[in-house]
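The records we work with from here on pair a chain with its fold. A complete example follows; check for yourself that the lines match position by position.
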Amino acid sequence: MNAFCELDEKSFFPWIQSLWGIRVKRICPELEIQGSPERSLSRVVLEDDLGGFFLLEKFAREKYPARQRVAQTLAHLNQHGLTRALAPCKTKSHTFLDFFGENCFQLTRFLKSSGLERPQWLGMGDIGRQMASFLISMRKASKGITDHYSFSCFSIKEYIYTLFREMKVYHPKVREQYLPMRTFLEKGFMDAHDHLDFAFCHGDFHPLNVIWHNHQINAVIDWEFIGIKPDCYDAANLVGCAGIEHPQGLAMPMVTSFLSNLQKTSVISAAGWRWFPEYVLALRFAWLSEWLKKQDEQMLETEAVFMNILIDQMGELRKIWSIKR
């Protein structure tokens, strides 16, 4: 991550004031920032002269269109009742980002998080209920969103086949290790995938992308992967993240309360539930791609073990999750 060299320029803080109307009092390196640092070039918390705190993020110039689209989407969700989707602050010219030098910058209200203890959060049913409640609210707030914004549709099926073509060239041994997992999905899931119902999704929905206050959701962050995906996508991602934290988490209160609360609604269609366990498995290939990019040998092995657990225990997981074939 690049250094935040702009902080040393005398004109930078006056530039922030001219755009967002805040007078910077100090930089706050002591405050912990939630979310992945890899999604921006640099980020820092600022305090203004009124005692407010703001997260300032720097992005490469080419990221401007995507970041602006995400910000506009969050503002739309806010306007339709989802205030816990933390939208960036608008500039005086009604944009969400602007340029200083070669990079663009975004300012967002900073909220402190009480955090979650890992892996204890897997045993907290309240966390699961909170996550389900947010997902239900997001689905309501995003109704009709494609009438205002366009999103590409994501296919994990195409993603997997593309990944295997790349692994054949660059990672043949890894490809052979994971080929049985793909073969398992080809027994029915791959054909069914194209017939799943699609909906607006967060794209990286799990408890570590949440700003918590006493086990209550204060805000959900890291919306970079928003899009139109199968309606079970966000739930499957959360369950997969719980399982990779610890395989026993798949049957613990956070996951079971999350799923039971979703099952009381129509957020996920019948087809989405029918293929939900397989989708949890399929979505792990997106994480496999991340481990390959980072050359993380330990996580590559951990992922293989986890995928095999999902396959071996899928029948039992269906019972635990109250999902029928």
Summary: The longest strand covers residues 53-60. The chain is about 45% helix and 15% strand. The radius of gyration is 21 Å.
